[in-house]
Here is the input.
Amino acid sequence: MRELRNKVAVVTGAASGIGRGMAEAFVDEGMRVVLSDVEEAVLRSTTAELRDGGADVHAVVTDVAQVDDITALADSTLRTYGAVHVLCNNAGVHTGSKPSWTSTLDDWAWVLGVNLMGVVHGLRTFLPVMIEQDEEAHIVNTASMAGLLTGGSLYGATKTAVVSLSETVHLELVEDGRKPRISLLCPGLVNTGIYLSGRNRPARFSDAGPFPDDWSFDAARKAFEEFGVRPRAIGDHVVRAIREERFYVLTHPEYEEHIRHRTRQILDGENPTLLPPPGR
Ligand SMILES: NC(=O)c1ccc[n+]([C@@H]2O[C@H](COP(=O)([O-])OP(=O)(O)OC[C@H]3O[C@@H](n4cnc5c(N)ncnc54)[C@H](O)[C@@H]3O)[C@@H](O)[C@H]2O)c1
Here is the structure.
């Protein structure tokens, strides 16, 4: 989609972090943006800040794990702007890196509900609208480098699922001759508050302990601040990928060696090993 001006974008998890970075990049392209997030106070303040800067934006409180919320998000978008051209399935949470088998079923239910079912709900609700519009449209699914590499425990499992699902949807759209296109966003470390994901954990999922269990919050904050890319830079990558109709959006070239390492191990029949994180 080359022309973005006046087009309508919907971003989930848009109150902060990468979602906010995408919303800012879209606003700078002259798009109308629907910001959705489960964290209402931050959603309201982010939307107000963008509006004060002259942006045409609309806020909808949404829990992506709830299909009714996504239906309401689509309804509100169409009522407000009459169409939808870009959807970013971005909301995501992280529970830490304790061994997979010690994660509780509540950990699994929460992370799968947001990171995987949130994307499924977005695709099932918005793609039929985009196909019906029969105009250029684009979906961006936020996975992670964790979806392309070995490891990552339950977080990695959800992100690997988003990679596979997105690749499938790309093939289906192209083979069916449909107009919407899709991109898969796989960032490395970005300076956001994802290590504080527990702030949005619903009470119905009992909390098994602090995140990350093997780091202190101070160490996590330091790592994200020291090594994390600015969220707005990720938004700029996404704008370029939409313009180029590019599927794979890799924002951290320093992980190239890690992807090659994993691919080589698969092809050579070697058991998985990890390379140290880049720069450390
Ligand atoms: N920060 C990183 O290093 C990094 C790297 C790769 C991928 N990602 C992915 O990027 C996406 C955004 O994460 P971030 O790093 O900006 O973290 P973040 O915590 O700053 O932002 C996530 C946003 O999603 C919202 N959210 C949480 N649960 C939600 C729900 N159920 N429904 C709707 N909104 C919800 C939060 O309120 C928050 O505004 C996630 O999918 C994450 O897995 C992050």
